[in-house]
Amino acid sequence: MKKTIFLLFACALTLMNSCNNNEKEVKDLINKFAAAVQNGNKSEIKNIYPLVQDGDSIMISAIPLDSMKISSVDDSTFLVKMGNSKDMTIARSSDGKMTIKKSHGLFWYESSQMEWAKKVGQFKTELDDVTNAAHMRDDRFMNEIKQKIIDQVKSGLKAQYINSGFRESDFSVGYSVKVTNNNDFEIPGDMYEVKATLMGFDTERLVDVVAQRKTLTGKSIPAGGSVTYSLGRTDAEYGSWRAGSVTVTDVPAEVLMKLYTPRGNEYDEFIKEHGEPELPSQPTTTVDSNSPLKLNMNGIMGGCGTKLTFDTEEGTLDYNPHGNSLNGNLQHRTASLVSYDPNSGDLVIEIKNGGKKTGNLDGKLKDGTYSGRFKNVNGHSSSFSFK
User: Fold this and answer.
1) What does each C-alpha distance from 226 to 177, 180, 223, 312 come to in angstroms?
2) Pairing status of strand 356-366 against strand 226-235
């Protein structure tokens, strides 16, 4: 009986130590992530949270350890609640590496942008950060809204050229362009432009020809008001100026949010018609510093004799551009890991010439051979096989 009690106690102690170790690992990972965010270390951020995209903004401070509430979802997944509606789901992969798989409340947006996005249904607090981020950068939706505003603004703008009269002393005519804003709001000077064209006359062909063009922009137009651009005086025998229609070149975010009245569900309607934006997918298992992936292989790539030397995450690719042997002056390239799935053997290695990417080796590592296709940045590919 005593032995049984001892064994139960030993099992309980082991389980408790395991829980404590997991909790410590999770806390260490979160504060490591917070430090990477504060230091702007993008590579470390993506190493810990692989689904973060380059354009995403994250705001997180060092978190007091005793304020975290960590619970186990299963043997390798942990939910961390940090207060203020912030949480993370952290998972341990088969190789033992912990990463953030999902979060709420960590991604940051400017307050007016966030307020507007919520009103049109583009941002929803119940969705995870990665999904909301994909919605927030959905240019398809924003461009559709922007085009509606551009059409609205343009309908209230009008350009007309003004002839200030003929002057006999130098046989010239003065020209200017008047731009009128019939909208009930001011138009910033960098939001529109008018093309003015000086038309001359080809006496040999007896036709009008374009002699000069000017782009008129930069003056803010008050609501219900107008501005004038002077084109100077032109020789009456030489030609005359004509003004085209007004082009709305851009709608700044603050103007767009002021002019568009949200209904609350337009982004949902947009998604129904056009589909969800592409979401980043969880990358295949990448090789860490403890991986046994070490390659020293020779073979043929695109008809060239090639040698691949690779150690965990970095390596070199040497090849003979003039034949399938490895003699003579070899070309040298650097190689770095993109992804590796030890279960399927799928291995992708990026090749660079200096600091410039030339393409990827995309193939399968199996039974001591690595074969597939080299896909260069211009869209061409060639087969390779190493062993």
Assistant:
1) 10, 4, 8, 67
2) unpaired
Model pTM score? 0.59
What does the DSSP 8-state code read for residue 237? T
18-24's contacts with Cβ under 8 Å and 24+ in sequence apart are: 19/72, 22/72, 22/78, 23/70
CATH of 109-282, one of 2.60.40.10, 2.60.120.10, 3.40.630.10, 3.40.50.1010: 2.60.40.10
**Identity (one letter) of the amino acid at 17?**
N
DSSP string of 163-228, one letter each residue: EEEEETTTTEEEEEEEEEE-SSS-B-TTSEEEEEEEEEEETTTTEEEEEEEEEE----B-TT-EEE
The fraction of the chain above a pLDDT of 70, given in percent, is: 87
First to last CA, the chain: 60
Residue 5 is predicted with a pLDDT of 36
Amino acid 135: pLDDT: 94
Domain ranges for the chain: 23-108, 109-282, 294-386
CA 256, CA 142: separation in Å to the nearest integer?
A: 10
d(C-alpha 101, C-alpha 255), whole Å: 36
DSSP state of 107: B
User: Which pLDDT belongs to residue 3?
Assistant: 36
The answer, yes or no, to whether residue 37 has pLDDT greater than 80, is yes
CA angle 62, 73, 290 (to 5 degrees): 70
